[in-house]
Design brief:
This protein has 11 helices and 11 strands. The chain has helices spanning 17-25, 45-56, 73-83, 102-113, 171-175, 190-200, 232-245, 250-270, 277-293, 296-305, 308-327; strands at 4-10, 32-38, 61-66, 88-91, 97-98, 117-120, 122-126, 129-133, 167-170, 204-207, 212-216.
């Protein structure tokens, strides 16, 4: 069994894949396994991965998997999870990169703490600019209860720091069914995943490791494209709310889930200019329907305590649906 499996999906990233693969080489170890998943790329990415596999084979265990159809990031990660053999697992995206020696430090940290998973800080790279982003957990290098890190509802907490690649995960979480992503989600795939992890895992820790470089502003990234695939955030947060509502602590946890859902809807509505016109219309109608599906008591509390700009936008959307129903 390898000590660590690194799951890396790639899709049309020929410009960035060489940097990603070079950083893996600079972290390679005979006890590490790199699972490289080509999600039916249409550019030169598949050839780049095949060449890299040959070059990496002398320093690490490598497997390249080619999808016959494009399934999206969640599905590609699941393919990697199904193939991974490591005692510990982590993720990297095909346009990001790692600092030299980071993976060794990551394994050392989770082994010393002995917890189910750890969360790490990261560096955001936008063109030549660099900024450090911290896990929103104040207590570092201390084993904590992940369920307690979901709250408070009105502050940024660990479930808001949803990046799957910012951490490492013990294999027992995979065996319990806690590491797979919702099949087919094209965006916000990390959100149901991080909530499930925090509700159902037994222990975690935040560690002050800086080694993942997250590339922002990539033209091909879904965060930069206003097409219908981004509307999958509705499906993702519906899942968060539904699963949290079934939790024994639903009374405590649901306000956080609903508040986060509302904040994301308000964010997308305020950024409407980036959407294609037909998709913007679909965004408004799907968001209005989502507001109607939310637990209404929790929604009222959220709208009463959210800032005026966002709550006004959401109330207007809610009234529009109520008025339409009354007219019908």
């Amino acid at each position: 069994m390898p000590k660590l499996s690194v799951i890396v999906p790639f899709y049309n990233v020929q410009q960035y894949a060489p940097d990603t693969l070079t950083s893996l080489r600079m972290n390679a170890h005979r006890d590490f396994e790199f699972v490289l998943v080509n999600d039916r790329s249409k550019d030169e990415t598949p050839a780049i991965l095949d060449r890299a596999a040959d070059e990496l084979a002398d320093v690490a265990q490598v497997r390249v998997i080619h999808h016959e159809e494009n399934g999206g990031l969640a599905t590609a990660r699941n393919t990697g999870l199904d193939a991974a053999r490591g005692e510990y697992l982590t993720f990297l995206d095909g346009d990001d990169w790692l600092a030299p020696g980071y993976l060794h430090e990551l394994v050392t940290a989770i082994e010393e703490l002995g917890c189910d998973f750890i969360r790490t800080d990261h560096v955001q790279a936008t063109a030549r600019a660099r900024s450090v982003h911290r896990v929103p957990v104040g207590r570092r290098n201390e084993v904590l209860n992940p369920r307690e890190a979901i709250l408070p509802a009105d502050r940024t907490t660990s479930v808001d720091y949803a990046y799957a690649w910012a951490g490492a995960y013990h294999r027992r979480l995979l065996d319990k069914g806690l590491l797979h992503f919702t099949h087919g989600l094209r965006t916000a795939e990390d959100r149901p995943w991080i909530w499930k992890l925090h509700r159902e895992a037994e222990s975690f820790a935040a560690v002050s490791l800086l080694g993942v470089f997250y590339r922002r502003g990539v033209a091909s990234s879904l965060t930069q494209i206003g097409d219908a695939r981004q509307l999958d955030f509705i499906r993702a947060f519906d899942q968060v709310v539904e699963e949290t509502a079934a939790d024994p602590d639903a009374d405590r946890l649901l306000p956080k889930a609903v508040r986060t859902y509302c904040a994301i809807i308000a964010h997308h509505l305020s950024d409407e200019a980036k959407w294609e016109p037909a998709v913007a219309k679909q965004l408004r109608s799907m968001s209005a329907a989502a507001i109607q599906r939310m637990p209404q008591d929790a929604l009222r509390d959220v709208l009463d305590t959210m800032d005026l700009r966002r709550s006004t936008k959401l109330r207007r959307l809610r009234r529009r649906v109520t008025t339409a129903k009354a007219a019908a």
